[in-house]
UniProtKB/TrEMBL annotation:
This is ATP phosphoribosyltransferase. The lineage of its organism: Bacteria, Pseudomonadati, Bacteroidota, Bacteroidia, Bacteroidales. Residues 49-203 form the ATP phosphoribosyltransferase catalytic domain. Catalyzes the condensation of ATP and 5-phosphoribose 1-diphosphate to form N'-(5'-phosphoribosyl)-ATP (PR-ATP). Has a crucial role in the pathway because the rate of histidine biosynthesis seems to be controlled primarily by regulation of HisG enzymatic activity. One of its GO terms (cellular component) is cytoplasm.
Amino acid sequence: MLRIAIQAKGRLNEKTMALLADAGISASVGSRSLIAHAKGFPVDLLLLRDDDIPQAVAMGTADIGIVGLNEVEEKGVEVERVLDLGFGGCRLSLAVPREADYKDLGWFDGKRIATSYPEILSRFLKANSINAKIHTITGSVEIAPAVGMADAIFDIVSSGGTLIQNGLVEVKSVLDSQAVLIASPGLSAEKREELDKLCFRFRSIIESRGMKYVLMNIPKQSLDEALKVLPGMKSPTILHLADPDWLSLHAVIPESQLWERIERLKAIGAEDILVLVLENIVK
Ligand SMILES: Nc1ncnc2c1ncn2[C@@H]1O[C@H](COP(=O)(O)OP(=O)(O)OP(=O)(O)O)[C@@H](O)[C@H]1O
Ligand SMILES: O=P(O)(O)OC[C@H]1O[C@H](OP(=O)(O)OP(=O)(O)O)[C@H](O)[C@@H]1O
Ligand SMILES: [Mg+2]
């Protein structure tokens, strides 16, 4: 039985539960539960604050965990980074007040920087020979310069909206983060086997995200042109129709290219185009 640590509540919780559900793992988690037995896979869910997940996995309290890379890097513990999960995307950046006379990293020399990520910041400052004072606070970091607590900040940025609201400008992105699956270094062979199965499910879900399954009818004489437009997994599927002048084409297309491809296919005579949601790609 694998034990997986996930965030009890917060930004990663919903998407983590959705990923588990897509992988056929369901659990009824009460608002005060700390541990839940899952159905559909031999796994227990351990519900923790995200700060505690890297340590829990490093110690073996949990075998695996889902947490932001930012927390893994901050805690500096020894865990295996198994899989990038493609959600919870953000970055850790240095930002300064809009009116600051900032030219380069040298600006930070002698300055006070507020952050909830002192370890990552300290490593970065050292690597760049910057002598700044780190002021550690646990939240509302962006307000620190305005209230005179610091000259600059080092914090999570996603849309950049919070920085703008607080009159700050991002000057250096230090770490790109997303939710990652981590594993304890000393997993037994049995647990490793379970983890491999789980990873197989996660990978097929991640790969299918943003992909569409497209079916259409195409005049036979347009086939060569259509094949130039359609990617497909290996190549598109071609099926014969009862009408000998027409073919049916099936292909997998990234959502970002969908409408541009459909316009090109319509221009060469494609009709009856169906776009279906792709649940999983199993390779
Ligand atoms: N604005 C954002 N956009 C995208 N991802 C984010 C954003 N803010 C944080 N994250 C990611 O989500 C993780 C969890 O964020 P959250 O705000 O829920 O943390 P928290 O308040 O420390 O939660 P906890 O109560 O578990 O300690 C962060 O560590 C980061 O990886
Ligand atoms: O670039 P943005 O899209 O504005 O996101 C960045 C903000 O999001 C997070 O805070 P959150 O909203 O989770 O609140 P918190 O400060 O209470 O953690 C993070 O700490 C930043 O403040
Ligand atoms: Mg936290």
